[in-house]
UniProtKB/TrEMBL annotation:
Bilayer disposition of the protein: Multi-pass membrane protein
InterPro entries: BP-dependent_transpt_permease, MetI-like, MetI-like_sf
Family designation: Belongs to the binding-protein-dependent transport system permease family.
Domain ABC transmembrane type-1: 101-293
Protein name according to UniProt: ABC transporter permease
Alphabetical UniProt keywords: Cell membrane, Membrane, Transmembrane, Transmembrane helix, Transport
Organism domain of life: Bacteria
Protein localization: Cell membrane
Annotated GO CC locations: plasma membrane
Composition skew (Low complexity), residue ranges: 11-26
SUPFAM superfamilies in the record: MetI-like
């Protein structure tokens, strides 16, 4: 006789006991440590900083004093040779590192400060009615017009009136390059000023000044801070360009651009070293700034 299988509904609940649950694998914490490859990107800039800080103390010759024959090839007592005036190229290139980096760093800081202040004021007030809004919109249009004027041309005109010195060049380039930062901060202010959390802060009784300082500025200035490396590199190039065309720091002050200007005419005759080594350091400084910026802001830029 065939026995029919019993309905599981009629037989009641199963008496099978489940085994112990397997514990979930713990979530892997994201490491905040930087890999060695990221730290390595700071090495070129670290080398330049060490040269800028310590170089004037140990260079073998006075960078502004004629110490030997003209256009001596690299080697012997003159590692990078001498230029057409008999100045030691190695000593001048090393000491010029301090000059160029100090100007570039000061310009980057000042241009960023100017950009944060004016970008914040323009972005917060250009949609307002009345005189304040009119002034903010006029300033915004003036900043936009600066895109049509090359920085080197503006620097050339201004230096011709005020003369060339480290202080003058720093002040001029800080003003010339600040519109880049102003536009960045203004764009970020326009993006964040109408966010919902700002409305909540207003409803909580926070004043417009407190709202701007506590919420808008921190969220808008980050773009300008990221862009400081670009301002740093551009100021190095502009300083060298002004020196190359003869309106930079007056000789015999060591500066990469003026050294390029002095040595460019000797390249054709085979005396390449007076121009090659300043050009090499100039390229190295710009590349070092780019690598350091990538190491600091690379992941954050990707995340955004």
């Amino acid at each position: 006789m065939t026995v029919e299988p019993m309905d599981p509904v009629l037989t009641g609940p199963s008496t099978t006991v489940a085994g112990p649950a397997t514990p979930a694998a713990p979530a892997r914490r994201r490491s905040t440590r930087w890999p060695a490859s990221r730290w390595a990107k700071f090495i070129p800039m670290a080398i330049l900083i060490v040269l800028a800080v310590t170089g004037p103390w140990w260079v073998p010759f006075d960078p502004e004093k004629v110490i030997g024959g003209a256009s001596i090839a690299p080697g012997g007592d003159h590692l990078f040779g001498t230029d057409a005036s008999g100045l030691d190229v190695f000593s001048r290139v090393i000491v010029a590192t301090r000059t160029n980096l100090l100007i570039a760093l000061t310009v980057a800081v000042l241009a960023t400060l100017i950009g944060c202040v004016f970008g914040l004021l323009i972005g917060m007030n250009e949609s307002s009615r009345g005189p304040l809004g009119f002034v903010a919109r006029a300033c915004g249009r003036a900043v936009d017009l600066t895109e049509a004027v090359p920085a080197v041309l503006t620097g050339l005109v201004v230096v011709s009136f005020f003369g060339a010195s480290a202080t003058t060049l720093t002040g001029i380039m800080s003003v010339i390059l600040s519109p880049i930062q102003i536009r960045l901060v203004r764009t970020e202010v326009l993006r964040v000023r109408n966010d919902a959390y700002l409305d909540a802060a207003r409803m909580a009784g926070l004043s417009e000044f407190g709202l701007t300082v506590r919420h808008v500025l921190p969220n808008s200035a980050w773009a300008a801070l990221q862009n400081m490396s670009v301002i740093f590199a551009v100021s190095i190039i502009v300083t060298a360009a002004l020196g190359f065309i003869g309106v930079g720091l007056p000789p015999p002050a060591p500066e990469w651009g003026s050294m390029l200007n002095a040595g460019a005419g000797d390249v054709i005759s085979g005396r390449w070293w007076a121009a090659a080594f300043p050009a090499l350091f100039l390229f190295f400084a710009v590349a070092a700034a780019a690598l350091a910026s990538q190491a600091i802001f690379g992941k954050r830029r990707t995340a955004r």
